[in-house]
Structure formats: structure tokens, C-alpha cells
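User: Here's a chain of 338 residues. Predict its fold as C-alpha cells.
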Amino acid sequence: MGALERRILGVLIAFGGVVAAGTLGYMILEGWPALDAVYMTVITIGSVGYGEVHPLSPNGRVFTIGLIVAGLGVMGYGLSTVTAFLVEGQLTDALRKRRMERSIAGLRDHVILVGGGETGKHIVEELLKTDTPFVLIERDAGRVASLERLGSILYMLGDATDSAVLEQARIADARGLITTIPLDKDNLFVILCARELNPKIRIISRLTDEQSRSKFIRAGADVVVSENLIGGLRMASEMLRPHVVSFLDAMLRETGSVVRVEEVQIPAGSPWIGKTLAETQIRERVGVVIFGLREAASERYLFNPNPNARLSAGDVLIGCADREQIATLRRLATTRAT
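Assistant: Prediction complete.
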């Protein structure tokens, strides 16, 4: 229960306590029936001024004075509580949190990102640019506030090593999980929990100590990324092939760029099954040049595939495309001609 619920519950309990005390007081001191006692208590607290239900004894009048003071105190406390929530924005935050919880509960085929540090920040930027549905799990509210400047994000404040938190993030319906926690042991535990909750989910993990790679793979990670290794390869590439790196940066890092190296998997029942690349007319119909093909049967990659290469279910086509082009490709890959 949050602070809002606790404070409102406190007001209700205090109000109920005053009503109960007033009712019992009139019944005991004045010998009134329960209904008359409740009625007198309510009009006294509410300062309605209807007059006494029955003539009061001196003790009853003293009791009424105390009841008025107590009632005004409760009413004042309730009013201050509501005012505090409106002024401090806690009510708005609580309603926003409720809306976010409902949005997270409706997620399907989304990505779960664990960790909102420097690595997580770059991942958030890319997920936002590509309109990929995702939910962030982060312990530090300050980091979340910083990431919200990048755009509208769904997030949960919690510890991803807790299975309950992963379940609230709808891991059973997620397509992938990326964990970027600085400590390898924490990432390893997240992998174990995620794989247990969803055996089919694709898991990408950050790695600090290269010697731990085999442990991550055995724990269930599909891909393990070493920042030291990637950083070293990047620096070498900047020296050996600077223009290639600049070209890739234009797709991956420039703020205004919407072109990405994208992939489309050919599903079972696709109209492209059994056709050659040339027969699909992808370049003519969509304007995308396919420069890579992963064959499902052999699991090998073909670079600059032959136009006569015949496609099968499960094959993956790779090319440069913007959002509209990739959406068109996926539609054509799944829609039979009529």
C-alpha cells in the first residue's frame, strides 16, 4: 500500500472512530436509541445545526463539545491530506502509476530492459527510435527521471533479481530481455530467473569479466556482450575502416536517422517460400536491397546473396530499411496474394 492509500485510510479510520465514539457516548450518557445516537453524532460533526435530537443533560453537553472538537480535527486533517496530495502532486503521481501499471499489464511481444545506467540509456534511445515496445526495470528513481527526458517510457522501480518483479513486467509474454546491470553476478541471477519464467525468451546480457562468458551461456543467455571486447573492436575499426564505421553510425547514432539494418524472418505459410529473391521483387516493390541472408536449414549467412537463391520458411532477410519499408516487408512476407 502506497503513501496515498495509507493516508486516506488513516482519515477514514479516524472519521469512523469519531462516529463510533459519539454514538456509544450518546447511548451510554443519554440512553438514546442507536439510530438517534448516530444521527446526533453525524449532524454534530458536520456542523449542520439542526438542533438536538433530545434534550441533553449537562454531561451530554460536555460530551458534545468534545465531539465537535474531535470532528473538526478529523475534518481538518482530511482536508489537509487532500490538499497536500493536490499541491505536492502525489495524487497525480499515484494516478500516473496506476495508468502505467495498466499499460504494462497490456504489453505483448515486448522487450524488458534491466538497468538504466549509461549502457541502458543508449538502449532506451534505440528502442524509442525504432518504436519498439519495452518496459524498463530500474532501482534508482533518479535514473528513471533522467531517462524520461528521452521520451515516454514504461518503467518499474524494483529489483529484477526478484521473480515477482519480472512477472509484473509480463515476462511470460515478452519476446526478449536485455540486462545491463554492472555486476556479473546480478546479471547471471536475472538470466536464471528469466529463463525459468519464460524458456523461449531471447536474453541478451552485459558481461564484464570475459572468463564468465561460459557461465552466462549455461545459465540461459542467448547473446553475451562484453563492453571491453566491443570497445576494442570499435577502436580497431576506426583505424582500419573509418568510413564503414561512419556509415554505420549514420544509421545507428544520428538523431534524425530512421534507417536501420533490419531483418525479416520468413514465417511458415509465407507466399515467398519456394521463390527466389528475384521473384519476390523486394527491391522493385519496396526499394530495399537485401545484402544478407541467413539460411534456416544450414544456419549459415550468405552475404550479397544470389538473386536466384531460393527461400525457405525460417530464412532471415537482412537489409537497410526505414520503418515504413520494414513494415511493408513484413506484411508482404505474411500476406498471400489474392
